[in-house]
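Subject: mismatched residue count in predicted assembly?

I count 320 residues in my input, but I want to confirm that the predicted structure covers every chain. Input:
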Amino acid sequence: MVRSVELNEYEREWEELAATSAILRRAREVELSRAGLSVSQAGVLYFLKTSKVPLTPMKLSRLMHKQPHSVSGLVKRMETDGLVETRRDLKRKNWVRVSLTRKGEEAFKRQLTEWDVRNITACLSKSERESLIAAIRKLRARAIELLRQLRPTPYDELPV
Amino acid sequence: MVRSVELNEYEREWEELAATSAILRRAREVELSRAGLSVSQAGVLYFLKTSKVPLTPMKLSRLMHKQPHSVSGLVKRMETDGLVETRRDLKRKNWVRVSLTRKGEEAFKRQLTEWDVRNITACLSKSERESLIAAIRKLRARAIELLRQLRPTPYDELPV
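Triage response: the counts match. Full output below for your records.
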């Protein structure tokens, strides 16, 4: 039953990309845990801190490229922890607006001091960084194109 | 309370890397869902299929750069689904050996036919791919070095 599995060159590259992304994420997780935060929590704090428009859980899920239901759960747990607060929008009653609390602001500042992994591209030369960023932008554009082909309609699944 | 958050060039690159990796993962998730599998399940099937040595949940967790407890849970759920089976090692009673079932073999073959995202680097030129892979290998090496600094001892946390 078992036969050898030959990966083509692209598939080997995919495995390298996936492994690298898992290791980078793990390293960032360990780094952030020193500030008492998870990667997802830090993501929510970052978007709330930098967004120029009010954010709903749905908008957050698009920015974070995550499923709406998992971001809703995350926001609820962060509210329980006192990092964010939610308020019904006055005009659109079914909209919930998420904002940072003072404790969330402090957590955001604390994680800024854990930055080795976050600055990891500093280990590359200027030209290596330029090629890397150019390549991942092409990959991202292609992935978005494939996502639209795979799931042509559901509005809540597509990255913005 | 709110002040502007200036990211440096490395941090902006980190955000691009993180966003790209989330989109690629999401695209692969959607692609794999057509074969009825999650990314993690496909990872387990892949390592079981290609490993030259017997795998325990602990070994799988190192290969997948995930926490041992989450891989144990994943393996248990896959056993319930009939994709893998576990057996106590005859010599080392506290070792559990994981292997593919016939249904797992079939699922592995089925996901091989969903390959657009998995072959995504085909959208790059040969030289773009070479620079990309060279850069991510350096990032991976640096991330492993940082992980060892951040967590110098716990043997079950380090990537192999």
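Chain B touches chain A through 64 residues (CB under 8 Å). Marking this ticket as 'not a bug'.
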